[in-house]
Amino acid sequence: MGEIKSGEKTRVLVVGATGYLGKRFVRAFLAEGHVTYVLQRPEIGLDIEKVQLLLSFKKLGARLVEASFSDHQSLVSAVKLVDVVVSTMSGVHFRSHNILVQLKLVEAIKEAGNVKRFLPSEFGMDPSRMGHALPPGRETFDQKMEVRQAIEAAGIPYTYVVGACFAAYFTGNLSQMETLLPSKKEVNIYGDGNVKVVFADEDDIANYTSKTLNDPRTLNKTVYVRPPNNVLTHIELVQIWENLTGNELEKTNITAKDFFSNIEHMEIPQQAGIGHFYHIFYEGCLTDHEVGKDEEASSLYPDVKYKRMDDYLRMFL
Question: What sequence ranges are listed for the domain NmrA-like (predicted)?
Answer without folding.
Answer: 9-313
